[in-house]
Amino acid sequence: MLIIPAIDLKDGKCVRLRQGRAEDVTVFGDDPAAMGLRWQEAGAQLLHVVDLDGAFSSRPQNLESIRRLRQALSIPIELGGGIRTLDTIAAYIELGIDRLILGTVALKDPDLAARACADYPGRIIFGLDARDGLLAVEGWTETSQKTALDAAKSLAQLSPAAFIYTDIARDGVKRGVNIPATQALAEAVDIPVIASGGVSCLDDIRALLPLEALGVVGVITGRALYDGSLDLAEAIRLAQGG
Fold first, then answer.
1. Of 5, 29, 198, 217, which sits with the fewest C-beta atoms within 10 Å of its C-beta?
2. Residue-level pLDDT at 15
3. What SS3 string covers the chain?
């Protein structure tokens, strides 16, 4: 199972939000590229990046920081936030971003999502962000009436590279990963699942490891790394059976 460090970008800085609230922000650094190198040197095999400004404004906002990250790192990067058009996807692919995360647009424009998966096989991920089981969109500012499970079953037909499942209530507050919901999603679809939201310590990683047999291939962690309650190198060793 991959332990995937997260870098959330806001105004060019590395930040974390609590439960997706833009007003509840903590700044952890003003040099995203240096932060990315820190995680790469600790053993990360993949970096998760979110353009928070892009998610709230529905278009890319931190392009220069993303470009510098790509230039600085040798490991793959997956990127989400504000990706609403095929042109944006193409531009990020040209920039060297390895995988693009579609959230809002995958739910609101399934034709575009289908085209993206067809044009870039193995490089499109669907982000399923749930509040009380219901999907949230537009930077988590709107809640739909569709459940994450229903959306996953429908979107799985497009053969995305993976689903990222985030329990919004646990995001940035270190309450532990929502194991039952993550397991239910992994059992419902034949697509790799990446868990997100709530990681606080090694015990949370340990609790997730049995789900690897069901197709949970990774877990994203942010705040726990930044405040020191989780050591990335230790987590990677645990996930690799060390």
1. 29
2. 83
3. CEEEEEEEEECCEEEEEECCEEEEEEEEECCHHHHHHHHHHCCCCCEEEEEHHHHHHCCCCCHHHHHHHHHHCCCCEEEECCCCCHHHHHHHHHHCCCEEEECHHHHHCHHHHHHHHHHCCCCEEEEEEEECCEEEECCCCEEEEEEHHHHHHHHHHHCCCEEEEEEHHHCCCCCCCCHHHHHHHHHHCCCCEEEECCCCCHHHHHHHHHHHHHCEEEEEECHHHHCCCCCHHHHHHHHCCC
* pLDDT tens digits, one per residue of 196-241: 988 999 999 999 999 999 999 999 999 899 989 999 999 999 999 8
Active site residues: 8, 129
Of 90-104, 172-186, 195-209, which range is least confident?
Answer: 172-186
Please tell me the distance from the alpha carbon of residue 102 to that of residue 128, in angstroms, as a whole number.
9
Residue 23 banded pLDDT, cuts 50, 70, 90: low
Average pLDDT over residues 139-144: 65
Inter-residue contact 221 to 174 (CB < 8 Å) = no
